[in-house]
Design a protein that fits this description.
single chain, 97 residues, alpha+beta, YaeB-like fold, 6-stranded mixed sheet, 6 strands, globular
Length: 97
């Protein structure tokens, strides 16, 4: 399968973004300008949480101060399976949850 990018998170696990998921993100959240924003959010996150019903999904938050309030936090949802992660979706939010 072709990936737009594959990087390693701070815990040593590989994370990738597929073309299919990038298409989904761009369609639902056009305010995300390019997938370089996602890479930055994963590599230089402000906080990672795993709230919600699925403990294998982690939410990486990165604040972009140049964005107009209230939605300044890029949230990247990553699901980990078998020691590797993949981007599910990404969107801007007004706070870290």
């Amino acid at each position: 399968m072709d990936y737009l990018f594959e990087i390693t998170d701070k815990s040593g696990r590989r994370i990738h973004l597929s073309d299919q998921q990038w298409t989904h993100i761009r369609k639902k959240h056009p305010e995300i300008e390019d997938f370089e924003m996602l890479k930055e959010g994963i590599e230089k996150f402000d906080k990672v949480t795993n709230y919600g019903y699925d403990p294998s999904v982690h939410y990486f938050y990165k604040q972009f101060k140049n964005k107009q309030p209230p939605n300044r936090y890029l949230c990247i949802a990553i699901k980990y399976l078998n020691g590797e992660g993949y981007v599910i979706t990404a969107y801007f939010d007004k706070k870290i949850k």
